[in-house]
Amino acid sequence: MISTFKSAILFAISLSTIPAHADFEKGIAAYEANDLPLAYKEFRASADDGHADSQFNVALMFEQGIGVEKDEKEAVSWYRKSAEQGNPLAQFNLGVLYENGRGTKVDFEKANEWYRKASKQGDPLAIGNLGMLHVRGDGVKVDKVAGVALLLVSVTLDNSSANNARKNISGTRGLTPDLIAEAQALSDKMMDGKDLLVPLDEYLKKDEPKKLESKTENAVPKP
């Protein structure tokens, strides 16, 4: 089952609410002219000034070796700076790096943290990857209902070939009609709310006693 990773320089219009920085605009122009070292220089100047979208671009250039020597540790550092300012693209990519141990050790709990932040902002790929953490039990308890529900939301928001959510649903073993129906109901609740994490967390809290009860019932009695 495949996680999805964004790989696009931010073009022309800044995606955040932060006003575009002069060096950011120069970086875009240099990138479009295929002068990658100059693009890095300009993005880095505005990134050092705290411009979140420039920080994202610097991170991506380090991650992919665009106009600068590839350095995934630097990518993690710059993604984090941008992500902490609320950039959902950076939050998503940072989650991917933590999930896969690139530029840092594998840390599923941090991957979960950053996927949740990006998911709260409606990023469909982050929602799908968060779903896979729940399906596999990476950094969270295994919960296929929650996982499939998140994957369904992801597909609804982005049905493009760049999104692996549909393939991941098909590849998830042990799905029953009842489980799928429960996941669809949860998915509908998440789509209806302003914050999809609210119904997700409500479900997880309600489901916890059921799992504890099931473990108690299945426990071998002491002689």
From TrEMBL:
Cited SUPFAM superfamilies: HCP-like
Bilayer-spanning residue ranges: none
Pfam families: Sel1
Signal peptide, first to last residue: 1-22
Domain of life: Bacteria
Keyword annotations: Signal
Name by which UniProt lists this protein: Tetratricopeptide repeat protein
